[in-house]
Amino acid sequence: YIIKELAAEVDRLLKQISELKVQNESKEEAILVSAAKKAGVSYGSVSLKQRKALTGHHGKIYAMQWSATGRNIVSAAQDGKLIIWSAFFGHKLYVITLNSTWVMTCGYCPDGEHVASGGLDNNCTLYALGDQKTHASAVLRCHDGYLSQCKFFDKDRILTASGDKTCILWNLKDGNKVAQKFVGHTSDVTAIALDTAGSTFISGLGTGKLFHNRGSTFISGSGDSTAKLWDIRTSSAVMTFREHKRDVNAVDIMPGGNCFITGSEDGFTRLFDMRAMRELASYYVEESPVTSVAFATSGRFFFAGHDSANCHVWNTVDSETPVDKLGGHIGRVSCMGVEPDEGDALCTGDWGNEWESKLQVWSA
């Protein structure tokens, strides 16, 4: 009899806890809606329209990045070209013919005077821009596998990720030397995201304490199904996140540097908190692999591109259903990025068809 009473009491308490959770979520929702109205921003939806279609590549677009000013975009495709575009006018500013057609990544230096690329040649090549002429200013050689990504911390430092399971930080000011090598993944490092205002980074494996000093942090994703958080002052990972079941294809850090998202072959996008070192939410809408991700400047929304040619817009605090879908892509949505200066535009790139691939610029 006593056991039955206790069981009934437990059921009653569990029901009460569920009711309190619902009430608390409703209160939080009301607070967010009220704050959004006062700030004059949309809370639950976003409406983006295609403003420009940048055509000119004749191979799969693998990567793109905005310039720090938000005026230009660099893109890399497997037609062996790097193209620097005017984001506003849509025309080409530079077309750089690469030594290898098998390019997989590109980066735009914050000084606006250099771009970088890399791919199956295992090297990161830097190009100087100016007076409608370009030339290779440096070639960074150390990786034993293909270059999957390259991103500038600042004009004097660039981080590269490779199929050799490592990331390398290069000192461009001191003879293009290796400043730090990051080892810990057990498979190809496929993606990196920089916290350029702090001192930690995430990749794909590793354990330890979190030293989050903004300006030196980055995140990496890997074919070993993990994401890692790194501090560039140490060669081993600070923390490893193992929630995904398949390759981590894409990562991005929320503005403010406290959270990051990952996109995986398993079709899930996951949100993690660097301070609590745990998953906060997961987002799933289709079986197709997630191939690219990007946060809006506010952190309120994020974008997830899929192998199915879909690009979904998610409300960060609502993991049930996307709030919008951006169409018009042909093939895999391979890359994307939010304009860094004002945050008022999104650029997406796709693999296209056998004749042409394109970048699309979106804004409200």
What's the layout of helices and strands?
Elements: H1 2-39, E1 49-57, E2 61-66, E3 72-77, E4 81-86, E5 92-97, E6 103-108, E7 114-119, E8 124-130, E9 133-140, E10 147-154, E11 157-162, E12 166-171, E13 177-183, E14 189-195, E15 199-203, E16 216-222, E17 227-231, E18 239-241, E19 248-253, E20 259-264, E21 269-273, E22 278-283, E23 290-295, E24 301-306, E25 311-315, E26 324-326, E27 333-338, E28 346-350, E29 357-363
Parallel strand pairs: 15-16
Antiparallel strand pairs: 1-29, 2-3, 3-4, 4-5, 6-7, 7-8, 8-9, 10-11, 11-12, 12-13, 14-16, 15-17, 16-17, 17-18, 19-20, 20-21, 21-22, 23-24, 24-25, 25-26, 27-28, 28-29
What does this protein structure show overall?
The chain is mainly β. It contains 1 helix and 29 strands. Strands 14, 15, 16, 17 and 18 form a 5-stranded mixed sheet that branches.
Entry keywords:
single chain; 364 residues; mainly beta; five-stranded mixed sheet; four-stranded antiparallel sheet; 29 strands; 10% helix; 48% strand; globular
Proportion of residues in helical segments: 10-25%
Strand residue content: over 45%
| Order of helix and strand elements from N to C terminus | HEEEEEEEEEEEEEEEEEEEEEEEEEEEEE
Question: How many β-strands, per DSSP?
Answer: 29
Report the biggest beta sheet as strand number plus sense, adding barrel if it closes: 5 strands, mixed
Silhouette: globular
Instruction: List segments where confidence is low: pLDDT < 50 over at least 5 consecutive residues.
Output: 204-214
Query: Could you tell me the mean pLDDT?
Result: 88
Helical run tally: 1
Radius of gyration: 21 Å
SS class? mainly beta
**Span between N and C termini?**
64 Å
